[in-house]
Amino acid sequence: MSSPLDPGGPFDLRNALRSVPPSSTHTLSLKFSPSHGGQFYEVMRLSHSGSGGTDLRLIGEAVEPRVVLEPDSDRMDFGHTYTGDTSVRKFQLKNACSLGVRYNIELLGRNDVKGAKFRAANYSGKPVFDCVPFQGRIEPESVAEFQVIFSPDHQSAHYSDTLTININDSPTHTLTLAGQACSSILYITGSDNQTEAEFHSMAAGMPSLGPDGEPVEPVEPVLVLFDERAGEGGGDVVKRELEIGCIKSATVKKNTGDFTIEAIPPSNPHSKTFTFDPTKGTVEASSTKTVAISFHPPQSAVKDGIIQANTNIILKGDVTRTCKLLLRAITAD
């Protein structure tokens, strides 16, 4: 028989002890399963008739996995991708310890049915994000390279997922994946359209029929808010910026675009209250142009009043789109 081992320790006797006949042997099976790194020591006393017993010293050392993520970031942003195209980002895992490690990559969107309503999903049912390879082994002092693939099938600004890296069945790194998809190569960022629900709510208020009763092309709203109260004092010019970008796509022949901001109609009393710089321009593929919008508070403005004006932004890329620019300003004292 033997003395009991620590039930909470890393050593475990895996088979039963039994009587050993003369000139025979019995093999002991011992398991070492440390829960953390460090050196471990324990004594197991084997009792036998005659001389009393023998001490068996159990010694083990556990090495903590040290896996380095490159680039060292908790977010991977794919930016804007043309609908139907595929965008790829890469990362590496370096095994910096003296033992090989097992890895497994998990994407929350594959299993999180409850949270799916808060993220955009492909209409086709195919995963928006994928990672290859998703499991394997990294030998000591070796590097494994991974590709994260973004494949949206419809326009949305709210594609996201969470990627978890498990090393030896324990999570070590988490990446937030984000991406936006456009159905044309030109896009606008920097507006105050917070959610797709707000976008569609504003779009629902746009006319669907022209003056002659004929259907018109849907107009996309772009909301920009100004708050004069956030400035140093009444009368200060308040500035905002929009970014107009152009996506480089392998499936679209034209990879440059033009934009034009129409003048606010003179019939609007605030036609001179908002100014734009520039009012038109060309955007090259994989680049953006900044448009500065300035709000010049009129002296006759009512305290905490709302000043509003609308105009159009015409985007000419692979297709021509009209965006309704909604300008809303809150005045100070």
UniProtKB/TrEMBL annotation:
The keyword Heme does not apply. Residues 88-180 form the CFAP65 tenth Ig-like domain. InterPro entries: Ig-like_fold, Ig_CFAP65_10th. Keywords: Cell projection, Cilium, Flagellum. The keyword Methyltransferase does not apply. Transmembrane segments: none annotated. PANTHER family: CILIA- AND FLAGELLA-ASSOCIATED PROTEIN 74. This is Cilia- and flagella-associated protein 74.
